[in-house]
Structures are given as C-alpha cells and as structure tokens.
TrEMBL record:
Keywords: 4Fe-4S, GTP-binding, Iron, Iron-sulfur, Lyase, Metal-binding, Molybdenum cofactor biosynthesis, Nucleotide-binding, S-adenosyl-L-methionine. Residues 23-240 form the Radical SAM core domain. This is GTP 3',8-cyclase. One of its GO terms (molecular function) is cyclic pyranopterin monophosphate synthase activity. It comes from Cyclobacterium amurskyense. The keyword GTP-binding applies. Residues 325-344 are annotated as: Disordered. GO terms for biological process: Mo-molybdopterin cofactor biosynthetic process. SUPFAM superfamilies: Radical SAM enzymes (SSF102114). InterPro entries: Aldolase_TIM (IPR013785), Elp3/MiaA/NifB-like_rSAM (IPR006638), MoaA (IPR013483), MoaA-like (IPR040064), MoaA_NifB_PqqE_Fe-S-bd_CS (IPR000385), MoaA_twitch (IPR010505), MoCo_biosynth_MoaA/MoaC (IPR050105), rSAM (IPR007197). The lineage of its organism: Bacteria, Pseudomonadati, Bacteroidota, Cytophagia, Cytophagales. Its cofactor is [4Fe-4S] cluster. NCBIfam families: moaA.
Length: 344
C-alpha cells in the first residue's frame, strides 16, 4: 500500500471528533500497541521454550500502516500509546517508528515496555525524542533465578540497561511477575532496591498467557503479596495512585522509590479501565482477557478507507465488556494465547 493512500486528508481528520467511550462511561484514551510477537527471551509464564509459531513478516502491520492507524486512534481521543511486544527492540527500525510517534502533537505520552534489551545508543535517542518513561520486565535480582525464569543468560545486560536508564534520568518501573514456586525470595530485595534508587517496582499476579493450556490460579494473589510485604516492612505507607492505575502503590518511609501491587489475575481495576489493544497483526482487543473483536490490518488491506476503520474501532469500544471476567467468557474454547502475541 502506497503512502499517498494512507495519508488522511485534513477534512477527514477534522471529521473524526468522536471519543472512545464505552457503554459503562469509561473513556479509552490509552492504546497498547504491540509491534512484534518475537522476543529474545523465553520467560516461562509468557511462552514455551520451543515450538512457538511466530507470525510471518508479511502478516505484521508495517510501520507505515501502524503510523496510519495510530493517527486514527489519536483522532478518536487516544492520548497515550505504549509500545509493547514481544520485545519491541528486536524489530528492525523500531527507533525510527518511535521517533515518528513522538512527533505526533496529539499524543501526550509515548511509553515503552521492554525486557531490557535496549542499547546505550538507543536509550540516548529515546531521551532525545522525549520518550523518557520505560517499564522493564524483571522477575529476579538473582542471576541464577533470572536464568531459570527467562531461559537466557542476560542478567548483566538487563541490569546495565536499567542503570543507564536511571543515569539518563528516565522514569523507570520494574515489573515483576510473582510465582510462589520461583521468586518469592526476590520480593524483599526488590523493595530494598527502591531505598537508594528512584524506581517503582510493581509485583504482578501471574496470568494465564503462557502459550500452553496449563495454568493454576495463583496462590500469591494481591492480598497474599500485601500481607507478606507488610510483615517484612511494617511501616509501609500508601501513596496516591495515578489516574486509571492498575497498581495499588506504597512506599517505605525514607526510601527514594516506591512499589505497587497489580492484581492482574484478580482484575480489581477493571472499573476504571481506559485501555484498548492492537496486536502486531492488527487484532483489536478491548480487554486483555477477551477475544479480538476486529482485525484492522484486514480492514485496511481490503482497501477500506478511514471511515470504515473508525467505525470498526467505535463498534469494538461499544461492545467492551464490564470486566475481564465477562470478556473471558466470550472466548468459545477458553484458550489463551501467548503474552508475547497479546502485548500485555
């Protein structure tokens, strides 16, 4: 598809004045945009070690298509875009695409989620673009446990990335998925890490998106996590949560950073959800736990114009379920895809 076919005319852009508000009054102004399903790690809770059927290059949305679609989302009121994967930085050309997004005046914020596979040169380019908020997925501060969880010996590289981000004054959040059989010993060290570093550590309940049909309801839910942390740090203080936050946030008095707990499986935050998701292959989801409700790639490549794409997005939002439990019921066989494909 040629660029001149993708560019929105000024009159068409001006006509897109609707906002993405669902039937429960929730305004969806946050797009999570997956740019690839590929990853250089093999975290056990995200995908199997072998046998992943990654999508073919021609099935991915091109950067040109991604740029075109994101402009439509922005015209429909999206103010924040988070780039996810897979691992975004394994896709060639990602830095140029992030620069393109950062130049969109309608966006208030462009953020990223990565496993820490970001070079110093890339970090400095991101800072130059004004993209200074990054979430790093890190499930252990112990080299051996890190290797067991990720199935890769990349601990030193990830820690070096985090240090460089802090040195360059990025706002850094560390996302740690808690498994009672894997990394409970890391909870206290993670919180202690916030003593002298302005980090936000968030502990997540495990979710059923590991690319297999095997999953057990996590015993270490948000209540168990809070009780464990409070027993270790009895003086913790509740701090103000950001608007539409998925985490409930705290800090230890005197510590530079903070920590939060995300009830990712319990889904207690659904009532204030402001997210919509687009996969690397164009699948549009209004809930992480639900099925795709449209494929914008297919609509786009069929030759449909902006109005058809806008209609598809508005219809998806109109059908958004009340919460993740209701959305999950819409999946006929109850199957869950790999988190690397969904983008988190």
């Amino acid at each position: 598809m040629h660029i001149h076919n993708l560019r929105a005319s000024k009159s068409q852009q001006q006509s897109m004045q609707q906002e993405l508000i669902d039937k429960y009054g929730r305004k969806l102004d946050y797009l999570r945009l997956s740019v690839t399903d590929r990853c250089n790690f093999r975290c056990y809770y995200c995908m199997p070690e072998e046998g992943m059927n990654f999508v073919q290059r021609e099935d991915l949305l091109t950067y040109e298509e991604l740029d075109y679609l994101t402009k439509i989302f922005v015209n429909l009121g999206v103010k924040k875009i988070r780039i996810t994967g897979g691992e975004p930085f394994v896709r060639k050309g990602i830095i140029d695409f992030i620069e393109l997004l950062s130049n969109n005046k309608g966006l208030k914020e462009v953020t990223l989620t990565s496993n820490g596979s970001i070079s110093k040169a890339q970090i400095r380019k991101l800072a130059k673009f004004g993209v200074n908020k990054i979430n790093i997925s890190l499930d252990s501060l112990d080299r051996k446990r890190f290797h067991e969880i990720t199935r890769r010996d990349k601990f030193d590289e990830v820690m070096a990335c985090i240090i460089e981000l802090l040195d360059q004054n990025f706002i850094v959040k560390l996302n740690c998925v808690i498994d009672g059989k894997k990394n409970i010993e890391d909870i206290v060290p993670f919180i202690k890490l916030t003593e002298k570093h302005p980090l936000s550590v968030r502990f997540l309940e495990e979710m059923p998106f590991n690319g297999t049909d095997k999953f057990e309801v996590p015993e270490w839910n948000y209540k168990a996590l809070y009780n464990y942390i409070e027993a270790q740090f009895p003086g913790i203080q509740k701090i103000t949560d950001e608007s539409n936050s998925t985490s409930v946030n705290y800090k230890v008095p005197g510590y530079m950073g903070s920590f939060g707990i995300i009830p990712a499986f319990s889904r207690t935050f659904c009532g204030t959800c402001n997210r919509i998701r687009l996969s690397a292959t164009g699948e549009l989801r209004t809930c992480l736990y639900g099925p795709p409700v449209s494929n914008l790639r297919d609509v786009l490549r069929s030759g449909a114009g902006e109005e058809a794409l806008k209609t598809a997005i508005l219809l998806a939002v109109a059908g958004k379920e009340k919460d993740g439990f209701e959305a999950e019921k819409q999946i006929p066989d109850g199957s869950k895809e790999s988190m690397s494909f969904l983008g988190g």
